[in-house]
Amino acid sequence: MQTLWFWIVAVMVAVYVVLDGFDFGAGILHLLVAKNDEERRTVFAAIGPLWDGNEVWLLAGGGVMFFAFPKVYAAGFSGFYLPLMMVLWLLILRGISIEFRSLEEASMWRSFWDGVFFLSSTLMAIVLGAALGNVIRGVPLGPDGYFRGPLFTNFLTGSEPGVLDWYTVVVGVFALCVLAMHGALFLWYKTTGSVQERSRSLAQRLWLAVVVVGVLVTVATQVVRPALFANLVGRPLTWILAVGVAVGIAGVPVMLKRGEELKAFLSSAVFITCLLAATAAGAFPTMLASTLSPAYSLTVTNSSAGSLSLNVGLFWWVLAIVLAVFYFVMLFRSFKGKVDLSVEGYGH
Fold this sequence. Notes:
Elements: H1 2-33, H2 37-47, H3 51-68, H4 70-79, H5 81-100, H6 107-137, H7 166-190, H8 193-224, H9 226-233, H10 239-258, H11 261-283, E1 286-288, E2 298-299, H12 307-334
């Protein structure tokens, strides 16, 4: 049962990154793909009906973590207190910029919130990547199951690293490139005219950046945590995920060349999902590795809730996830097709 809940958490995190990832990507790129107020309104309208629903998956993932693996939740949320406060404020600023931007027609007002939207989206992508880098690299968990993580020390990995070091920064840059590409493909799929053409052009360039930085991250991960790749090689079933990563990233330029907008976006989604799933598979059964001693690491067995709680919780989780999936299917169907600013309901 612990293994099942491990994968439930992993899937919910992947769903969040895929869905809210294109929101972040749109925010990162909107100053580049949109050159006037109408074009920027088009970008905001593309994500307007979706962004707040997408962020629910972050809350849901945190709730599932709290329920199924309370020790991991307690260690992570206490050790990463400062970065989590940064995430909270960045999410607040993103939401405010989206909602406030069109309340006034003054150019200075809209330019200010455009800048806030760009900055908060960019920093969120980097922070999410750095968070993943910390999970992969490990944190200085002690025998009591807790750690203190300063924002940075000497930017070197070791037994007591900071939240930011050379490795987590590289992973953060990789996340920035991936989510920017993901957002560009979403805008190419949802918009028309000049915004669509600029989005397509940027997606092609960002694909190359993802490949180059992805190779660097792969090499760096082998240096920082070689056991992750050893686990993947030793588990033949996980090779399917590696194939999914390759197919997903290779499918993006092919679909861009063919003009298949939706398929290009879905290829990016497959790439992100399989990449995160492969990372989880390589880390399993460890959920939070200790850089001080492997004996202090939190695993699915020593950090989970009781079996009765997990069994009862599974019933309610299935019920809730069915309702959530139904809601999101209806939401995306209601706003399918290209953005039309003349239609009431796209808003923002």
